[in-house]
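Extended Data, panel c. Modelled sequence:
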Amino acid sequence: MRRTSASLLAGTLVAALAWASGPSSPAIAQDPTPGVADLTQDINQILSDSRLTIARAGVVVRSATGGEELYNTDGGKLMIPASNTKLFTAAAAAETLGLDYRFTTSVLAAGRKAGSVLTGDLVLRGTGDPTMLAEDYDALAAEVAGAGVKTVAGRLVADDTWFDAVRLGNDWAWDDETAYYAAPISALTASPDRDYDAGSVVVSVAADGDKVKVATTPETDYLKIVNRATPGTSTDVLIERLHGTRTVVITGTVATPYQEWVAVDDPTAYASALFRQALKKHGVRVLGPTVTGAAPSGAAKLAERESMPLSELLVPFMKLSNNIHAEILTKAMGRKVSGQGTWAAGLKVSTDFAKANGVQVLNMRDGSGLSRRDGFSPASIAQLLTAVRGKPWFQAWYDSLPVAGNADRFVGGTLRSRMRGTPAAGNVRAKTGSLTGVTSLSGYVTSADGEPLVFSVMLNQYLSGSPKDIEDKIAVRLAQFSRTRTVDAPAQLRQPAADAPELECSWLKPAHC
């Protein structure tokens, strides 16, 4: 007869001490205790869900302190991780760049200043800062004006050479081209909001009498808007940028205000347009055209802006599963280690880091997990989760993971609507992952005994609706796990909140996500 598990409260202090203990020794084979045997039986039962009959499921659970493997089914098989890839990118970035790493955006004078006239070019140079807002370009323009420059006789040069000119990631789907979560990557870019969705613009529509009004955030004339929408009794509107252009076409009907995040075609041109607009606002005229190119040696610095440190950027990156941050950090790692701001160089850094920490099965094609050729095994993810616990940057990295059931977007992140009212709420810290036919959840949970566990659940090739509830049931069961006490049955999940999205925020951009 199974007995009910004890409260998690009793194990809180034990768990805190255990999480702080650092990396573990190799696993020691043991006969399964009744608690482990029950856990195995319950996870097997959860995975017997009919939705997985034709699908692939890989699950690994380990003790984070002893390294003991508590559960494994197909843990060594290569599977598509989706955004679980970001666990590797974020860890490699923390190790390689350091938590104090900041991106810089500079304005340089390439010429002599004669009174209020700069006789040469004005250079805007970036290193990939995804947190640059229109207001930040405005502040740089204000500094230029404050330095006494009123006229630039030369050109505005956009220097994005810190990274290469390859804008889209390996194997990305062509029909994601205009989606904000697959925006092009550049060393010069801009974000429309404080989620820092670099390389995108928010296009808003609202009915206004017999017309539909269109606005953009930030305000910019970079996009060409073709508005064919009409007021109606319901909102059924499509906002779409045409392939390879700056033209956004709006069709359908609008009854209530609606907005869409749209990726720009060229983030360098977008950022330099915002800066040129800001210069004009502050009374600085640039007589020449906007061009791209490298700043000449000896150019004098007029203004500079530093981003928040990586320790802070990890929060919007991981909590909201920001794909663009992942790719920018990948190229930044390549630039630091080999002097090449390329995907190839950056992915080598991430792969080398993973292998140095005992990861054996991996294939990284990008930093975010958008590629369907990315591949990790659940055991490899569990190995990474265990190995990084001894790193000096671990706490900041751990704190950046979404927290189950916490409604605050910058705490709960992509798990904020999941596992509410269960033993996993406020306990599970894990990275989500979503692609069509792919879902994954990997991270940390404290058991009912206060024992820290690592887990990885990867579900691939299902044809049903999203089986994220299967991941949640496993996570809840791990929160109830005890080596000495058993539970009556796997916990039943409460119904998700009505506003809970099926997909994570790397795919959706509604107000509740």
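The longest helix spans residues 323-338. This feature is highlighted in the accompanying rendering.
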